[in-house]
Amino acid sequence: MTSRVCLVHYHEVGLKGKNRAHFESLLIDTIKAALAAFSVDRVVRISGHVLVTFSDADDARRAFDVIARVPGVARVSLAFRTRRVPQHYCRAAIAALTEFGSFETFKVHARRSHTDYPLSSLELNAQVGDALCQAFPDKVVRMHEPDAVVNVLVVQGEVFVYARSERGAGGLPVGSAGKVVTLLSSGIDSPVATWLLSRRGAVCVPVHFSGRPQTAASSEDLCQDIISAYAPAIQIGRLYVVAFGDCQRAISLACPSALRVIMYRRMMYALAERVARIEGARALVTGESLGQVASQTLENIQAVDDVVSIPVLRPLIGSDKQEIIDRAQAIGTFDISCETASDCCTLFMPRRPETHAKMCEVRRSWDLIDHEGMLEQLMDTIEYVDFTSGSYRPPRALRERHRSLAQRGADSSME
Length: 415
Ligand code: ATP
Ligand code: MG
Known about the structure:
InterPro entries: Rossmann-like_a/b/a_fold, ThiI_AANH, ThiI_fer, ThiI_N, THUMP_dom, THUMP_ThiI, tRNA_STrfase, tRNA_sulfurtransferase_ThiI. By secondary structure, the protein is an alpha/beta fold. Helices cover 41% and strands 20% of the residues.
């Protein structure tokens, strides 16, 4: 019997030496989580690939696009799985080439893995090639750069045949590189930065600063939309939301106008570091790109880094805006980021922001505000929204705090 399956290829995951088994099982877990809505039968390792089987035949075709977006997947192929019977796998090869789409030239690429099958790879190439030449008499066999390649993989008693194959997201499975806190605005850059860190295997915990109560909450909704756009291939477990409007107002009243933006950023970073401590995250991530806007000069970057002691990762620091836009379009966040939302970025902005801040002036200005008091107050009122995620583990500290809050609520309702 012939069935449809997805064959997942991975490069970097396989290169991890002694950790290989750990990375492979993380990849399997993240693929399973991403395919929760499909009729997945099994996700197992098979001869340097991950094989995904389904109980509903149509699901392989639909799951193909989802699997391609899962970090750690180098390539995914939509394959026919047949018995080791020439008639069966030759028929599958014809079907695979038919569904490939338009092509003029093709070749067969056969491989054998751990098998006692009597035909060699070369003999298999010739056998399947003959069948295809008969089925497609007006097409041409070409060994060098053909339009279509029909792959035939013999593994023990089974044969996998595929022509449809797509490059995956690449990178490493989420969960293999620890946790980071990402500063997520609803702009174009930080959703891309968050995606890039997820692609490198980090569990990303975004923190969003909203202009509430000075503005509406629309930027918060857009952040949730961005998180939905990553799913189900990348599953963010929790979005922290900070109502930052009043704090910005206080800063704008107390600090020199030109330094306001730097003060806002310092407050954001310092708060994100506190969230990172609670979450057990080892770094902050931002979407800054050198020189892109006034606040992103080397002096200003130094002026905000000054307030935190954990590393601040800036995966877009050397990217051009157009490259970032291209990536945002590819991952599906661009259109969301283009929606206008009132957020804290446009609130209480100075007419002439400082582009080359001097550290002594920055620190002096910082001391004009009760920054510790503000941070504590913001941490006390921080909110969060949870999403389905196979890789995120909530921190115990907050879980206990919320349990005690729930308990307090229950006690007061009994009084
Ligand atoms: P983005 O496109 O990510 O909004 P930007 O080009 O608007 O970035 P800035 O406003 O200088 O640049 O922000 C720099 C970085 O600071 C952002 O990439 C983001 O990581 C963080 N940041 C800015 N505003 C917010 C916010 N409201 N909430 C969370 N993080 C923010
Ligand atoms: Mg922005």
